[in-house]
Design goal:
Blueprint (H helix, E strand, L loop, with lengths): L17 H5 L1 H11 L2 E8 L2 E8 L2 H7 L10 H7 L8 H4 L9 H10 L4 H5 L2 H15 L5 E2 H6 L1 H11 L6 H11 L8 H21 L5 H12 L4 H32 L1 H9 L4 H15 L8 E2 L4 E3 L2 E3 L4 E4 L1 H4 L34 H18 L4 E2 L21 E3 L2
Parallel strand pairs: 2-7
Antiparallel strand pairs: 1-2, 3-9, 4-7, 5-6, 8-9
Helix pairs in contact: 8-10, 8-18, 10-14, 11-12, 12-14, 14-16, 14-18
The protein binds protoporphyrin IX containing FE (HEM).
């Protein structure tokens, strides 16, 4: 069979530039309409890489279960190429960049605390943290809801689950913030390198003083049957901590912005704090409409692939744009309408297929309890700055506000 040779269109813009980040939805709409499979560049700090992007819902979904598009080894290597040698394990050793059977083996090792039953048991703790934060903030005229409320809740929860001691959390959080900041900043390598050394140290300390936590479980798995290397343990700690709070605190922040933008829907939620069904559909709609993650980790074409008559050459890096799929009018009725009763709602905000978000139940639980506590305790919640002063950070494929100043009362 001969492979068709229709050229893949070049997108007339680059993902990750301030221009793209200023209007991702406009760019997504253009892509879906004009170039559902396109070639472009992905810019991240000083690193730029060529990338093939898919923007329609059905293509994104199909791609995420297509065996011709595995993650490793080239996908991990593509990200790792932008990192100094001593940091590459963060990408190459993480389960998010592996395929079966390694992926399954790593995922099985950490899955247990994330089942719906185990997650539900965390509800009380999340409620306590949300109320403690609100207690601490009541006297302030202006509160940065992102930093002072949305962030500490999931960060504390995931740190407790993984086993990062309270005294170590500020240092770990600073290191992670550096890791996710501009890679061209001075001292970036050293700061992130220091974080890895610190994590290796944490693993060593946990070896001699085991606890009832995920890290201890991983170390025991490593000792039992040579099933995990130390690099894998370190990468797993990073993956869990970063995935466990960076996403969720932005989801909570984005949820509040979106509800303030849609006061009728906010009132509806306020009036029905115990309506399980309504809250469930509201959280799914929030993830669809303003979920923080706009794309998955890249895959690599294992062979020349015929995609709707166009060729993705072997070795190409390919990424589905989840943020675009979630606004595709072919998949969602009136996709730009925020509707907390939307059903069904098969969004891709938590990914799809083998790498479907491990922490989706936890994220839903945390977002729901945090937003519910806030709406109940702050009946007059309002922005403390004009709406157009809320700025999105120019991060490729992330919906992340720089800050969210509000009056709680
Ligand atoms: C994977 C989104 C919260 C842990 C993913 C993926 C997405 C996602 C889109 C797929 C990535 C890919 O295919 O490359 C989100 C969002 C969250 C959230 C939007 C919150 C709003 C969490 C939490 C945890 C978590 C709370 C807890 C630890 C993970 C892990 C993976 C993952 C470990 C990789 C799974 C694998 O490779 O098998 N998440 N996530 N996430 N998420 Fe989340």
């Amino acid at each position: 069979m001969s492979i068709p040779t229709t050229p893949v269109p070049e997108a007339p813009f680059t993902i990750g530039t301030p221009e793209f980040s200023a209007d991702p939805l406009g760019h997504y709409a253009w892509l879906r309409e004009n170039a559902p499979l396109a070639r472009t560049e992905l810019v991240y700090g000083p690193v730029s890489q060529p990338i093939w992007i898919l923007s329609r819902y059905r293509d994104c979904r199909a791609m995420l279960t297509d065996p011709r598009l595995p993650r490793s080894p080239a996908g991990g290597a593509a990200i790792a190429a932008g990192l100094p040698e001593h940091l590459r394990l963060l990408s190459t050793e993480s389960l998010i960049m592996k395929d079966d059977p390694e992926h399954k083996r790593l995922r099985t090792l950490v899955s247990k605390p994330f089942t719906p039953r185990m997650t539900a048991q965390l509800g009380e703790r999340v409620r306590e943290l949300a109320n403690d934060r609100l207690d601490a903030l009541t006297d302030r005229d202006v509160v940065d809801l992102r930093q002072d409320f949305a962030l500490p809740i999931p960060y504390t929860v995931i740190s407790e689950m993984v086993g990062v001691a309270e005294a170590d959390r500020p240092r770990f959080q600073d290191g992670v913030a550096a890791l996710l900041s501009d890679r061209s900043a001075e001292g970036w390598d050293e700061q992130v390198g220091d974080l890895i050394t610190f994590t290796r140290d944490l693993v060593a300390r946990k070896r001699s003083a085991p606890g009832d936590d995920i890290l201890t479980g991983l170390i025991q798995a490593e000792q039992d049957g040579d099933r995990l290397t130390e690099d894998e343990v370190v990468a797993m700690v990073f993956t869990l901590v970063i995935a466990g709070y960076e996403t969720t605190y932005n989801l909570i922040t984005n949820a509040v912005v979106t509800l303030l933008d849609h006061p009728d829907q906010m009132t509806r939620l306020r009036q029905a704090p115990d309506d399980e069904g309504l809250w469930r559909s509201a959280i799914e709609e929030i993830v669809r409409f303003c979920g923080p993650v706009g794309g998955t980790k890249p895959a690599t074409a294992a062979e020349d692939i015929d995609w709707d008559g166009r060729t993705i050459p072997a070795g190409s890096t390919v990424m589905p744009l989840l943020g675009s799929a979630n606004r595709d009018p072919e998949a969602f009725d009136a996709p730009d309408r925020f509707d907390i009763t939307r059903s069904p709602n098969h969004h891709l905000g938590f990914g799809y297929g083998a790498h479907f978000c491990l922490g989706a139940n936890l994220a839903r639980l945390e977002a729901r309890i945090a937003v519910q506590a806030l709406l109940t305790r702050s009946p007059r919640l309002s922005l403390a700055v004009p709406r157009d002063e809320l700025v999105l950070e120019p991060m490729p494929l992330w919906t992340r506000y720089h800050e969210l100043p509000v009056h709680l009362d």
